[in-house]
Each structure stands twice: as C-alpha cells, then as structure tokens.
Amino acid sequence: MSQLNVRKLSKRFGGVQALSNVSFTVGKGDLVGLIGPNGAGKTTAFNVLTGVMAASSGSIEFEGKDITRLSPEVRANLGMTRTFQNIRLFDDMTVRQNVMAGAHARAGRSLMHSVFGLPGHRAAEQRIGEIADEMLERTGLTEFGSRNASELSYGDRRRVEIARALASAPTLLLLDEPAAGMTDTEKGRLSQLVRRLNDDGLTIILVEHNVRMVAALCKRLIVVNKGEMLAIGEVDEVLRMPEVAAVYLGRRRKEIL
After folding, report:
1. What is the tens place of the pLDDT at every residue in 161-210?
2. Could you give the CA distance from residue 17 to residue 86 in angstroms, rounded to a whole number?
3. Do 173 and 197 contact (CB within 8 A), yes or no?
4. Given CB 3.0 to 4.6 Å as the disulfide criterion, which of 18, 53, 132, 157 pairs with 99?
5. Edge-to-edge strand list for the sheet holding 80-82
6. For the segment 62-74, what is each residue's pLDDT rounded down to a tens digit?
7. Nearest 5 degrees, angle CA 185-CA 190-CA 195?
C-alpha cells in the first residue's frame, strides 16, 4: 500500500532549478535509498517533502492526505519526521532531555503546560519521560541517558538524534546522511539500528553517500542527478544501469560498491 506519493515535484531558487518534476511512491514498511552525487538535489527533496521549503510546483500526498502546503509541524503530527545532515541537539541538556523534547508532540501536550504547571502537566511529563526511556532502550542509548549530549561521541550523538525523532512516533522517518563522519564501527551499529527499525514496520527513506551501505540496507533505490529523476527500482536493477554508474564519476558498479 502506498504511504507517500510524490508527483512532479519541483523547486526553484530564483533562476536555479533545484528539483524538476520528481515523481515516486513509497509503500508502507518500505526502506528506500535516495542517492545521487553532490548537488543532485537530495537534501532539497527532503526539505520540500518535510515542509522546510515550499514546493514551487507538484504535489505530495502522505497517508492519503495532500500535505503539499502544510507546515513542518503539521506534517510531523501526521507521522512524517526527519533528521538533518548537521546534528541539531541541545548540548547543554542530557540525552534523556533531548529525547523528551521529541516526545512532547506525541504526548499531546504543549511545552507551555510544563513551563507554567498547568493542569495535567505532571501526568504528561511522566508519560513523556516513559516515551523517552523507551526510545533510549530502542536505540541502545539507555546508559547515556543522564549524560549531557555534548559528552557523547559523534556516532552516539547521531543515534540520539534518531531517538529524538522516534519519540514523536513517526510512521515515516527520513534520515539525511546519518552515517556522515562516522567510523566503520559506528556505521555498522547505525546500519543495524536502521534495519531493526524497518523490521519493526517503520517506513524509512535514507539519503546517504555511502552507496555500499545503502545497497546493503535498502529494498529500492531512487537516483537523482541535477535535480531530476535518473532511475528508480530494485537495488541490483538500478546499480546495473550504465547511466547510474556514469554519474558516480564514470565508475563501474563494482567500484561504486
């Protein structure tokens, strides 16, 4: 069953066409890789999909609802959550508090209830704490819960960002280059987490430069180049396409992987 339908999505910045008539679908429970060379439009696509940027034209349908003009907050409430290339944690807060920040939307209470002690805030805060603890366990971060986010390694900070995203109870998670800057060991740990989340039924779209990692994890690939769709299909099928190999500096498939 289709969960996300993107039709002829375009984004212009003045005279620059960053995305041009990009169309694809993502099914429930899918794990899709969005790949392409630097400047291909991958992050722009994420920004438009999640409402960080407005589409110039085209449409986005999520869970059967047209979300093309909806705000990022409304899209998140509908179940679409993302991470960013650059880690965006509250470094002076604990890991648990960072994850709790993502759980506030799920708990159905605003931060104002907590700040001003309005009725129901204690029950809401208790539930938010429970959600945070569940996500820390799910991502293997329980032992770091009481430490400040700034004290963690780069790879663990990446996992905190994913835990915070999971705390909002997404049905679709968009990961923007989560393995960037990681060691091989950290990448292996991340790959296991992504696979486990998908096995649990979470739909994931993964933007990642590490094609070997994407090929090992994903069920399907979407390839963009210069803002346009280049290919879409099963992993092996796509990576055999000469035009896909060509955009990676003319390398052959075995060299890409």
Report:
1. 999 999 999 999 999 999 988 999 999 999 999 999 999 999 999 998 88
2. 24
3. yes
4. 132
5. 80-82, 172-176, 203-207, 31-35, 220-225, 228-234
6. 999 999 999 999 9
7. 130
